[in-house]
Each structure stands twice: as C-alpha cells, then as structure tokens.
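User: Can you help me understand a structure? I only have the sequence.
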Amino acid sequence: MQHLLRKQIILVVAFVGITLAALSQTDEVFQPNHDELPYYLGMSMGMSNSFLSFKRGSNFLDNSSGKVSLIQPTQTFYLNLGLTGTLKLKEHILLRANPTLLISGSREAFTFKNSNYLTDKSYTIPSVIVDLPIAFKIQSDRYNAFRFTDIMRHYVLAGVKLGMDLGSEKSATVGRTTTTNLLKGTDFAYELGFGVSYYLRYATISPEIKFSYGFRDLNKSSTATPPTSTNLSLSNIDKITSNFVYFTLHIEN
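Assistant: Let's start by predicting it. Here is the structure, written out as tokens:
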C-alpha cells in the first residue's frame, strides 16, 4: 500500500506541476489575501489503508476453548470522502476539522488458526467508518515555485481522531460461518501528517499523507466472560489497536 501511495503522490504532484507550468501568466499572485481569512471550508477525497496490531498475551499458546494459536492482520482499503473546515489561530497555526466517510463494503480484519479451524481462516466484518479528526496545522510561509510567485507552502499537522465503524454491531463471517463480531466499533487515535498546498486562481489544492495510530483496545474478548463466540475467542490477545495510512486531496476555497 505504501508503494501505491507513493505513486499516487507523485502523480498528483506531477499533474499540478504540469498545470502550473502550462499557465501563461507567471507574474500573477493567486489568492493574495488568503492568509487574511479567519476561516475557510472545503472538501476532501482520497484513499486509505487500514490494518490491526495485536499484542499477544502470556497465555497465547494456550489453544483451548477456541482461542487463536495463529493470528495475522490483513490490509483493508477504503475510499475516503469528507468535508474540511480550517480556523486560523495565529499566522502559521491553524485548527482543522475533517469529518470523513470511509467506504469499503467489507473488511477482512485478520486471518487466524485455532483448534476449531485447523487451516487458516479469514475474519471478515462489514465496515463503513465515520472519522471525526481534529488537528493543529502548522504551515510555512508561501514561496515561489514553477516560475510563479507565492504559489506553494508546506505544512505538518498533529491531532486526535474519533472513529466509529457503523458495521460493528453486525455479525462477522469466518469462512462461510456467521459469528459474533469480536471487535469494538468505536476507536480513538493519534494522528500525524504532512502535505503541500498549491494556491491556484480559484482554489487551493493540497495533497496530504497522514498516519493514524489507535490507542483504544478494540478486543471485546479481553473483557467478555464467557467468550463472545463459541467458535472463536480472542481472550488470549491482550490488546488490538488500529492503524491507518491516508492519502488525501484537499480542495479548499
């Protein structure tokens, strides 16, 4: 996925660069009063890659009562659609909210093996996620590029995210068998990212890459007694957390 993200970033940056180079006016400053705006709105679109991290317990090799003896995360790809609102706090410090809908259809969360399934099985759940991130955005001064004046700036951001999986209360699928979903639907995460903004005549386009690291335990089996499923138990997994990599194109103003 990281390879695909690099290709997407290179293509978007190259496209914007070619577009700028093709413009005839090189002495015009686009959106010269943009930094004076107290806030501005926009939309975002992109794709993301998600996978789980597992902290195995001291009794992980105890393969009784359907407990897993082997577990591996599986990557899931999402289409991201969102809205963006940015509030200016200081000259180079802003506060940004970016509520986003992540659409996948189904999520193959992990593969596993236990005493009930002697071969590797996939654990799949329906998944439509609503992300509610908020972050501080620190940006540079605008600078010249592609023979244009004040056309670009770069930025970094850091914040937190609330994620809600709307399919979390539905049943999971193991092979052709329906079973209870063992993963919680509400998640909290830290987020770090960086991007570049291109100030065009009528809009600002910002390709961005962002990394999200969950800190809430998503494992229902760690607190459930008895196990939530007769076919599968994750009670010998101490903690399950989420990880996301986002590539997003923000279009603002």
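Now, to help you interpret it: Helices lie at 2-22. The two ends are 30 Å apart (CA to CA). Let me know which part you'd like to focus on.
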